Amino acid sequence: MLDGGEPGTVRPGGRTARVREAVLRAAEDALTEQGFTGLDLADIARRAGVGKTTVYRRWGTVTGLVTDLLEDMAEQSAPRTETGSLLGDLTANARLVQRTLTDPRQGPLFKALIAAATGDAKTAAALHRFYDIRVREWAPCVRQAVDRGEAPEGTDAHEVVRAVSAPLYYHLLISGGRLDEATADRAAEVAVTAARAGVYVRGGGKLRRV
């Protein structure tokens, strides 16, 4: 998440927090509607109902604003689900990613952010941090599965989590294929089967292939 939080959530914290919330939600709207290349700080200030000076002083550039947006999305992302089995946990992860990517607001937003990251190093770094946070959030599910004997010792938990969402992003960005719950469930099943077979066991600095 690989996955975003519920859009429009307002958290307490005084005027500064309310201004940040309004500006970030306005940035989401603009990204969803017109993509990264159409972003303009003055337009975002207008959408948020705050002064342009406030926006320019706090964020400085469009890249600075997008970086803050990604950090906010990581903070608001839903926590992992623990079902007691590796398949159950990874299916929950896959379905969360699937719901996010097919959401009328979140799907276009992630497309815009990924597109922006391909042409801007700072945005790319922020996007990498976002996904690193989400992978680290779900990695304990794999480590717990190893402790239960569901996957071999030495399994790279981060690689397993990445393997779940990778085919879902492929459908979103490349193939244009159907991205439904069945697709999500299949991605989880494939990742679990590979993990149990030792595909993601690290040995000698490389993932073991079987």
Automatic annotation (TrEMBL):
DNA-binding region in chain numbering: 40-59
Keyword Transcription: yes
HTH tetR-type domain residues: 17-77
UniProt KW DNA-binding keyword: yes
Cited Pfam families: TetR_C_11, TetR_N
InterPro entries, per database record: Homeodomain-like_sf, HTH-type_TetR-like_transc_reg, HTH_TetR, Tet_transcr_reg_TetR-rel_C_sf, TetR_C
Record keywords: DNA-binding, Transcription, Transcription regulation
Molecular-function annotations in GO: DNA-binding transcription factor activity; transcription cis-regulatory region binding
PANTHER family (UniProt xref): HTH-TYPE TRANSCRIPTIONAL REGULATOR RUTR, TETR-FAMILY TRANSCRIPTIONAL REGULATOR
Listed name of the protein: TetR family transcriptional regulator
